[in-house]
Amino acid sequence: MTKAEFLDKLCQGLRFQSDPEEIQKTVNFYAEAIDDRIEDGMTEEEAVEAMGSIDEIVAEMRASWRSGGEDSREGGSATSREENKRVLSAAVVRRIDVFDTSGDIDILPSPDGEIHIEHTASDRWHYDISGEETVTVRRIKNDPGEDTVSFDIFGRKFSVTIPNFNRAFSDELRLKLLLPAGSSVAVNVNAASGDVECREVALDGLNVKLADGDVTVENVTAVGKISLNTASGDMELRGLSAPEISVNSASGDLDLGDVKTASLSLRSVSGDVDGQEIAVTEKLNATAVSGDITLALCVPCLSVQLDAVSGDVELQLPGSDSLYTVVTRSNSGDARVSGQALNGPNMVRVKTMSGDIDVNFHS
Amino acid sequence: MDIQLRRGILEVCVLKALTGGESYGYQIIKDISPFVAMSESTLYPILKRLESAGALTVTSREHNGRLRKYYSITPVGLGRIGAFLTEWEEVKRAYDYIKGDQVNDKG
Question: Residue B58 belongs to what domain range?
Answer without folding.
Answer: 3-99
